[in-house]
From TrEMBL:
This is alpha-L-fucosidase. Pfam families: Alpha_L_fucos. One of its GO terms (molecular function) is alpha-L-fucosidase activity. The lineage of its organism: Eukaryota, Metazoa, Spiralia, Gnathifera, Rotifera. InterPro entries: GH, Glyco_hydro_29, Glyco_hydro_29_N. Residues 74-221 form the Glycoside hydrolase family 29 N-terminal domain. It comes from Rotaria socialis. Belongs to the glycosyl hydrolase 29 family.
Length: 228
């Protein structure tokens, strides 16, 4: 049976802001009035952390502790994922919203992203570290999740990590120099930022209306204009 993490958020908000070009500046952010109003209306929500990290040892901390780790795509092979059952738990708990991890730090996308990009070798490839190229290639987990939530009247959002992607050799929002680990793709910083913006547009346009897109750890200054 697949194991996934559920985090329940009560009337608490945690905001982390990072600027990777100004690492010497210490920030102490506070919720804005709009954020506080949203929190008061939302009350209880769920974060479903179901992704490639579900199928690797917990000590890897979702690819965080091993930057060179690109888990074999064939590991993502769930026998049963019942999003209606998840959502019934939300309803029974009295939750008003739920967020699904669409892409975490391994780089694996749980929706059939159509993004293509150029490698530094000048070869153009698809974003083939996604559910489309896994053993469950005919399943769109973001779509199933959003549909189940909509039927139950639960507002939905998605989590997307912009600052870390093992498959693309990205840490702290920057493509890393040096040799690549097995399974990693050679790209430029410009290409990476283009991939991020295209995938965010897919999520926002194809699965909306969404309550939010959660940028855990924030995003770089160079992405700010494109995201906002």
């Amino acid at each position: 049976m697949s194991i996934f993490w559920i985090l329940i958020f009560f009337e608490l908000i945690s905001i982390e802001v990072r600027s990777y070009e100004t690492t010497n500046v210490k920030l102490n952010p506070h919720p804005t009035p709009d954020q506080l109003a949203w929190l008061e209306q939302s009350d209880i929500g769920f974060l479903i952390h179901y992704n490639m990290a579900t199928y690797i040892p917990v000590e890897y901390d979702g690819c965080n502790r091993v930057p060179s780790l690109v888990p074999d795509i064939n590991l993502f092979y769930p026998d049963t994922v019942d999003t209606d059952n998840w959502v019934q738990t939300f309803v029974d708990t009295g939750a008003k919203y739920a967020i699904l991890v669409a892409k975490h730090n391994c780089g694996f996308a749980t929706w059939p992203t159509n993004v293509h990009f150029q490698l530094t070798t000048n070869e153009t490839i698809s974003y083939n570290y996604s559910v489309t190229y896994s053993p469950v290639s005919d399943t769109d987990y973001v779509d199933h999740f959003v549909d189940s939530c909509n039927q139950a009247g639960i507002k939905t959002g998605v989590y997307y990590s912009t600052i870390w992607n093992n498959w693309l050799n990205v840490r702290d929002a920057r493509v890393q120099p040096g040799p690549l680990a097995p399974g990693q793709m050679p790209i430029t910083q410009e290409t990476y930022e283009s991939i991020v913006l295209q995938q965010l547009e897919e999520l926002w346009s194809n699965y909306g209306p969404l309550l939010e897109i959660w940028f855990d750890g924030g995003y770089s200054q160079s992405l700010k204009a494109g995201i906002s």
